[in-house]
Design brief:
Layout: E1 2-5, H1 20-29, E2 32-36, H2 47-52, E3 56-58, H3 61-66, E4 70-72, H4 79-82, E5 90-93, H5 101-109, E6 113-116, H6 131-150, E7 158-160, E8 163-165, E9 169-173, H7 177-188, E10 192-196, H8 203-208, E11 212-213, H9 234-250, E12 253-256, H10 271-275, E13 282-285, E14 302-305, E15 308-312, H11 321-338, E16 340-341, E17 346-347, H12 354-359, E18 360-362, H13 370-375
Parallel strand pairs: 1-2, 1-4, 2-3, 4-5, 5-6, 9-10, 9-12, 10-11, 12-13, 13-15
Antiparallel strand pairs: 6-18, 7-8, 14-15, 16-17
Helix pairs in contact: 1-11, 6-7, 6-11
Length: about 375
């Protein structure tokens, strides 16, 4: 099997989909690996490292993709490149399948078996393949570091001859993977932390990291079978905002991470809540790319509203591209080795496997995912 790994050309993207260490593993499995020249440079990995790992390089992107049995990427393929792919080949990347109907249509019409990394099911066997979680963990870390850099105070309590400095107060909204890492990072920096999530089940995790869990009685909430927070009713959202407004007003830094898989991010922090916050405080919106949790946040920009800095972080994992690439590459190699056939030396998509059922979105000129079929 020939596996091709092209460069990423999405603006601002510094991560790469496969690092030399994992390329070496693919070669040991029996795969022929070819990368686009310069593929790893943005993340600190150079061609000679890939060549030493057993890969070859190509400057001809179209030839690289059209000759491959499998293509590994970070982002969805550009529409014009889908027609270059070999019929029956496997394409593995983020695909945003709920919002990219044109991409799916092209993949179907060209007979591509497309794996969506967002759709990897949250089951025990697939934990090591869960790219959403691996990248979200880094995003939570980055959010705190960015907030600390943009805030005009320090995070920890400090007792000096010149007096005592009180610890900064951090309020984390949304305690998934990103939120938990944000809590842990802010704690390491010495901040005083509060956190809220619609799922009461995460209270123990919050407390184990040394933060205070903010309780709001919203009635029935909970989470989906995959561990995502369920969407709230309008009444629940209004009640949540009333309580959170008080905690935002007390906070020096607010970090929002709330997202509902496959849907626009919920608006949580309103302009009225921002107006009540202290001058000089900072909000980091980790959901800015999917609609934003914060009113007035703009993906990839910092805006100031009533003296409050609102940072709409875009592609936060790319801020730590080297380690983000290492983790995503590990997710990919875990998926490949799970379905690698040692006899035929290729990837066998076992269509009755729960991981394949969850993540394979197109196959043999049709939509394969039952979830997408229902939505479409």
């Amino acid at each position: 099997m020939k596996i091709a790994i092209p460069k990423e050309y999405v603006s601002g993207e510094r991560r790469v989909s496969m690092i030399p260490f994992n390329v070496k593993q693919l070669v040991k499995l029996g795969a022929q690996v070819e990368i686009e020249t310069g593929m790893g440079e943005s993340s600190g990995y150079f061609d000679d490292e890939y060549i030493s790992a057993g890969a070859t390089t190509s400057r001809d992107r179209k030839a690289l993709l059209s000759s491959a049995d499998a293509v590994l990427r970070l982002h969805k393929p550009p529409i014009e490149e889908i027609s270059w792919l070999k019929k029956g080949s496997i394409h593995i990347s983020y695909l945003d399948p709920f919002n990219e109907n044109e991409t799916l249509d092209k993949l179907v019409s060209h007979g591509i078996s497309a794996i969506s990394m967002e759709m990897i099911p949250r089951v025990a066997r697939a934990q090591k393949m869960d790219a959403l979680s691996s990248q979200a963990s880094l995003a939570g870390y980055v959010a705190v570091i960015v907030a600390a850099e943009r805030f005009n105070k320090i995070f920890p309590m400090m007792m000096t001859a010149a007096g005592t400095i009180a610890p900064s107060r951090v309020f984390v909204i949304g305690v998934g993977v990103a939120g938990l890492q944000a809590i842990a990072t802010a704690k390491r920096l010495g901040a005083r932390i509060e956190a809220f999530d619609t799922r009461p089940v995460v209270e123990e995790q919050v407390q184990s990291l040394g933060a205070k869990f903010v309780k709001i009685d919203l009635g029935e909430t909970g989470q989906t079978k995959d561990g995502y927070a369920k969407a709230l009713t309008k009444e629940q959202i209004d009640k949540q905002r009333q309580v959170m407004a008080k905690h935002c007003a007390m906070a020096d830094v607010v970090i929002t991470t709330a997202q509902v898989f496959g849907r626009k991010a919920p608006l949580i922090v309103t302009k009225e809540m921002i107006t009540a916050m202290k001058n000089g405080s900072v909000i980091v919106d980790l959901a800015a790319e999917s609609g934003g949790n914060v009113e007035s946040s703009v993906s990839g920009q910092e805006v100031v509203v009533n003296g409050v800095k609102i940072i709409g972080l875009k592609n936060p994992a790319s801020h730590v591209a080297n380690h983000a690439s290492q983790m995503y590459s590990s997710n990919l190699i875990s998926f490949i080795t799970e379905f690698w056939d040692d006899e035929t030396k290729d990837i066998k998509l076992r269509l009755d496997d729960e991981i394949i059922k969850g993540s394979l979105v197109t196959h043999e000129n049709k939509i394969f995912s039952e979830t997408l079929k229902k939505l479409m």
